[in-house]
Structure formats: structure tokens, C-alpha cells
Amino acid sequence: MSEFLVRNIVLVYFFYGLSFFSMGLAILVESGHASELDFAKALLPLGGFGIVHGCHEWLEMFLLLHLVTLNSPNPTWLQVIRQILLASSFLMLLAFGLRLIAGTVYHKIRRNLFLVVITIWLLGCVYVLATSSTRLEETNSLDVYTRYALAIPGAALTTWGLLIQREKFKRTEMERFGRDVAFAAIAFALYGGIGQLFAAPSSIFPSRWLNYETFLQWFGIPIQVFRASMACLAAVFIIRSLRAFEEENRRALNSLREAQMLERKRLDSLRSELLHRTVKAQENERQRIARELHDETGQTLTALAMGLQGLTNTIEANPAKAIDQAQQLQSLAGAGISELQRLVSGLHPPQLDDLGLAAALRWYAGQVHDRFGLQVRVHTESSVKDLPMEIRIVLFRIAQEAVTNAVRHANASEVDIFLTRNEHALCLKILDNGKGFDIESKLKPEHEPPCWGLMGMIERASLINAKCQITSKLRKGTTITVDVPMNFQTATDKVESNA
Known about the structure:
Layout: H1 2-7, H2 9-30, H3 38-41, H4 43-70, H5 76-102, H6 107-131, H7 135-171, H8 175-195, H9 212-219, H10 223-241, H11 244-317, H12 319-347, H13 350-354, H14 357-372, E1 375-380, H15 389-408, E2 414-421, E3 425-432, H16 439-442, H17 452-463, E4 467-472, E5 478-485, H18 491-498
Parallel strand pairs: 1-2
Antiparallel strand pairs: 2-3, 3-5, 4-5
Helix pairs in contact: 2-4, 2-10, 4-5, 5-6, 5-7, 6-7, 7-8, 8-10, 11-12, 14-15, 15-17
């Protein structure tokens, strides 16, 4: 068996290189996936190790074929390239192990340790070159020293790092991938601890006694077969562990779906609650109107009826007193008309229909100033006109809600309302100098009680395909911006256009 393997050692080199090259290629393909796993963030050096070390083994296979077929020494420059590939691959393996252990937090410590290892290896290479007497001794000693100084520590750190990742996989309930990296750790431990210890015979301790000739005598197989076997195992289990990214993506997708469902349920619940509150507000408004009609307008009309009834009896008996009663009734009728106009304006300002949004906002600013003493300034452009009635109503109600909040909650002394228009959108902006609030906490789903006023403004804006943005900072006031696209179509317009 040993003679067969020695005679066909070229095939061993081929499959040895193919194992690591396949592993590196698979890692490089998977490295493009976004992942939160530390294992994924550290894989790139391992992929480089697989590609470079696979190329090293194939180059060594080529050098062996060149030596056997041509029966002449290999060119020095090819030996130099082989040494560079060998050292580069093990440096990448070392970087992978350090990255797994130190993570992304201790990058400075990781970099310093990496530089220390490189410095020690370079100083050792200088010593080997200075003390070697022949080119063969120099080549073998550099090879052995590189394996001792880089490969064995790199494999040890990689083993340690993979075992750490196994525990992290277990904590994320992905135990099967933890088992894969554990088996890969065992393969790397045997690959480095045994496969790189039995190197070529050289002057480097302990390769004079522990080398590939010793391994062949003890176990009856070339050391390259053992390395190739460990390389195959490491490649298989590393490639199997890459499926953790698919599992992570599947879990993330499921979590996103669950979050979307919860958000949809929350929005449906909020919309239902908003509808409930809207209906309740309508009923309260009807009750208020009924009370005011009964208490104010009803009493005024009753007084007018009774006054007119008494006036008919007074005209003949006392004309002067009748004239005085008529004047009182006239004043009473005027007060009733004023009260009725105030009531109607509170329901739906006639300025919205007759004069437009800007005039309605100015009228409302005057009403607020008269009732609460709050200074409300309205700034408009001449281009803001001929707006659809649906847009007028929605923007007026949003401005009304914003000013009401400034009065009730913000303790503001000034409010500015800007109404502007460009070729793309109509913009309504309301700014107050009140105490402000934390917008993120107020609009969180779990905030109790929900901010129905703010959510009502956002919901109203969505009715006209507008975007309502609310910004606020503590002690710096609040800004509400509503952008209405100019290609807006009302629901009636859409039905008519479809018909």
C-alpha cells in the first residue's frame, strides 16, 4: 500500500490541492452574503488560504513532475514562488484564527500579534539563509521553518477559533453547524499538529528526527496522504458550515415576515381605533352642536318668538315702548345670527369653499389669537390657488390639529404656517416655538397612550397620497411638514378616470 501511494504521490498532491482550492472557492462565493455571524465576517482569510495553498500544492506537484520527467533540478525562481505561496497561505490561516478569537472588537491587538509573528518568521528566515551551506539545505530549512513558525501556530489558532464559534452557534440554536465547525477544528488540529510537524529532514529542530521519512516508517503512508486526508475533512466540514448563512437568511426572512404581520396587525388595530375615535368625535361634535343650538340659538329664537308676540300687544297700547322692544329684538336676532355663523364656521369654514386654503388659514389664525392669545402667522405664495377641495380640507385639518397641539401641549407663544408650491409638490409647514418632545418615543408602537393627534395627521395625509413628516426636539419646538405631490388624484377622479 505504501509503495503504491509513494509511486502515485502526484495524485495525492492533486487531490490535496483540490480540497483546499475547492474550500477557498466555496468560501469566496459565499462571502458576498450579508451576515451578522462573526464566523462569516472572518471567513475571507480562510478562503484566501484555501486558494493559495491549493495553488502551492499544485505547484509542488508540477515541480515533482518536472524533477522526475526531466531528471534535472527545479529552477530557483520556481522554488522562490513555492516558498512565497507556502508562507502566504499560512499567514492567511494565522489571520483567520486571530480574527475568530479576537473578533472585530480587538482589531488592534490582532494586528499587533500578526506583526509580531511575521517579524519572528522573517528573522528566522534571515538566520536560515545565513547558516545554510547548500541550496537544497536552504530550501528544506526554509520549508520546515515556515511550517513550524506559521503553519502550526495558524492551525492551533484556527482550531481554537472554530471551537469558540461552535459555542456561538449553539447559543444561536444552530447546533448542527456548531458540530460541523467542531469537526473542522479537529481536522485543522491534526493537519497542523501532525501534518506540519513531520516535515522534510533539515537542520531545524526537531525535523532531524521527526520528518516525513519517520512518519512513513511509523505509519506506512506518506505524510502527504495524511495532510490530504485532513484537508479533505476540513474542506468538507467548512463547506457544510457555510449553510449556516442560508439558515440565518431564512430566519431573518421569517423574522421579517413576523414583524410585518405584527406591524400590519398593529396598523389595523390603530386604524380601527382611529375610526372608532373618529366616530366618537363625530357623535361628541353632534352633541355639542345640539347643545349649542338648544342653549344658544334655540333660546334666542324662543326669546324672539315671545318678544314678537308681546310686541303685537304693545304696538297699539304703547307705540314708544313697542319701538324700544323692536330694537331689542333686532339686537337679539343679530346676536343669534352671529352665534349661528360661529357655529357653522367651526364645522366647516366657508372661506375654504369661497376664498381658498390660504384665506381659511388666516381666518383660523385670527380665531386662535382672539381665543387663546397665541400669535399665528400665515405665509403663503400667490401660486397656491385652485387646489382640489379634498386637499384643502385635509391640509386645513392638519394645520388645525398642529395649532391645537401647540396651544394645549407645547405651551408655544408663536406659530408660523408656510404654504408653498413648486413644480413637483405643494408643501404645508407648521413650526412652533414650544417645549417640543421626543418624537421617537411618542410614535413607538408600545407607547401608552397612543398619540392619536399625531397619528391622525399622518393618516389624513395618506388620504391624499401626501407625506407627513414630524420633527421635534426638547425645548426647541416642533415642525410638521406635509408634501403633497402635484399629480394627486382624488378618489372621485380615479373612479371617473377608470370609468
